[in-house]
Amino acid sequence: MKIYNQYIVAVAIVLLLTTVLLVATGQTSLDTYYSFYFIEALIITELFVYFNKKSRRALIVVSTVLFSGFIIVLGFQVVKSLALF
Question: Which of 43, 55, 78, 85: disulfide with 51, CB 3.0–4.6 Å?
Fold first, then answer.
């Protein structure tokens, strides 16, 4: 199995298990799901750093998009917290 396929399978399995665990615990907040997915995707990407340069560049783009989404979710949470005061 090529390294790319291993990466895709690893991400798919981890995200599936996370989804099952979050549903089992009764989580309904979309930002919780996104935060977990973001952290796990970055961890798995770091474990697979031995990709070639072209693949690493593509993964940096994906990580940047995920991080941007995480910052947006974090911003919404800050605004929601400040609105309570």
Answer: 55
